[in-house]
Design a protein that fits this description.
single chain; mainly beta; 4-stranded antiparallel beta sheet; 9 strands; 50% strand
Length: 107
């Protein structure tokens, strides 16, 4: 998220990373649809989604680029359905500004 001080908005930038598996019988994970940068007002909830493919089971990890892996708590909700993986950030504030990273992996 980057802050625009006049409009009190947040901008979230996303990087995506695919981990390559050395096992040839395993199809490497790939993003079909990666998370997109977002501009939101402070106090709003923002939802990101990505669609990935590859040999299951797939794991998706969300990080803030300060190195912290994001986990489910009152601030972040991480979940998935049959098609997409999601990250929700509730009640965005200035400290949510910055770069985020979505990493996919499989065994």
């Amino acid at each position: 998220l980057e802050s625009e001080t006049d409009t009190e908005t947040n901008f979230i930038n996303f990087l995506s990373q695919e981990r390559i598996n050395p096992n040839p019988s395993v199809k490497d994970p790939q993003f079909e649809i990666g998370p997109s940068d977002r501009l939101v007002r402070y106090g709003e909830t923002v939802k990101f989604q990505c669609k990935v493919n590859g040999t299951r089971p797939l794991e998706v990890f969300w990080f803030k680029l300060n190195g912290d892996e994001l986990t489910n708590n009152e601030k972040y909700e991480i979940y998935h359905d049959d098609e997409f993986y999601y990250l929700k950030i509730y009640n965005t504030v200035q400290k949510d500004n910055g770069m985020y990273l979505c990493v996919i992996s499989n065994d």
